[in-house]
Design a protein that fits this description.
With 344 residues, the chain is an alpha+beta fold. Helices cover 59% and strands 8% of the residues. The termini are far apart. Bound molecules: glutathione (GSH).
């Protein structure tokens, strides 16, 4: 079998997510650092994001490269059957995808916020992310590159919605999420999807690989309050030895009961943002203004997250009536149900 290539960065949550997926799935691949001396001959992608997943062209065809971790996971599911990370029950798969989306699109707010707000975090990320491209670069190049990275990323805090107004909401949501995951683990659930990992587990892992393991401020919070989560992240990074033959996905009853606190959290922070964002985009407004968790939220509209809302609504609509009734009852009164019912 020909080997895939994953082009990414150690400091990129989505790159870490996809590397963990490929390792767990035992799909042969090589890891290439974006911007490293090995990053040569990779086909262009429509938007300059990482990770890039490269599928080798067969029979003389050119290699094919794609971005967006959620779609990369779906494509891998079509190509490789073993060790799937998408539950076989479409209704459970939908719930898993909803949590994946929350991690990719909301947890990335705390991730970006802590990294580019606090001095110690900025210092570490700007230098280490530069060196991740090439650890033997000269001091002069490092100095230039680290200030370039810091300036560019601090300027982009507004894109994810990190500012003075939103700081309390973002930081409280990170601490709550750590607590939820800690309680989930201590009650005997190894993964969000029970005894085997789903796409949501890898999405949580991706963001937490940075928050709980790399960036000094949020990592200190995780170490002090939820060391169990810090260890969970280490486990998720390489699950290649985990045996999932004959390991079932959670039953509908278990999924509803066990995942409910996470859906309440999705409803508490992510749903109101998604709805206000979609409204702002529809009205051509220059700002998203809403209340999240009883506090004010303000940021510029985020077109990609407008698409996320539409994709989630489309996938709910594509469920069979019985499956849709089940997911609606699972989300009922969690607040996450508003994602599918609120006018946007
Ligand atoms: N939705 C995409 C998001 C990917 C993404 O936002 N990647 C960031 C890094 S984590 C990126 O490449 N930013 C551009 C840059 O750093 O130049 C996914 O799931 O893969």
């Amino acid at each position: 079998m020909t080997t895939l290539k994953l082009v990414g960065g150690f400091g990129s949550p989505y790159s870490r997510k996809m590397r963990a997926v490929l390792r767990f799935r035992r799909i042969p691949f090589t890891w290439i650092g974006r911007g490293s001396p090995d990053d040569v001959g990779i086909p262009e992608v429509p938007v300059a994001l990482i990770p890039v997943l490269v599928f080798p062209g067969e029979g003389g065809r050119a290699d094919e490269a794609m971005i967006d971790s959620t779609f990369q996971i779906k494509r891998l599911e079509k190509m490789f059957a073993a060790r799937s990370i998408i539950p076989d029950d479409p209704a459970i798969a939908f719930l898993d995808a909803l949590l994946e989306d929350y991690a990719d699109e909301w947890l990335t707010k705390p991730m970006f916020h802590y990294r580019w707000k606090y001095a110690a975090d900025i210092h570490k990320a700007s230098h280490v992310l530069a060196l991740d491209r090439n650890p033997i670069m000269s001091r002069e190049i490092l100095a230039k590159m680290s200030s370039y990275i810091a300036e560019r990323q601090i300027e982009r805090l507004r894109v994810v919605g990190s500012n003075e107004v939103t700081t309390p909401v973002i930081e409280a949501s990170y601490r709550r999420l750590l607590g939820l995951l800690d309680s989930h683990l201590v009650s005997g659930h190894r993964f969000l999807m029970g005894a085997r990992p789903g796409a949501s587990d890898f999405a949580f892992f991706g963001q937490l690989s940075q928050l709980a393991h790399f960036d000094p401020t949020p990592a200190a919070i995780a170490a002090a309050e939820t060391p169990r989560v810090v260890s969970w992240v280490s486990h998720l990074d390489d699950l290649s030895s985990l045996d999932v033959d004959n390991v079932p996905w959670p039953s509908r009853e278990d999924a509803v009961e066990v995942l409910r606190p996470f859906f309440v959290e999705v409803g508490r922070v992510y749903a109101p943002f998604l709805i206000a964002n979609a409204r702002a985009l529809a009205n051509g407004a220059s700002e998203v203004r809403c209340e999240i968790d009883g506090l004010p939220w303000v940021q510029q509209p985020f077109p990609y997250q407008g698409k996320c809302l539409k994709w989630m609504r489309d996938s709910r609509a594509a469920l069979s009536p019985a499956d849709r009734a089940f997911v609606d009852s699972a989300l009922k009164a969690t607040g996450a149900d508003a994602i599918f019912s609120a006018p946007a």
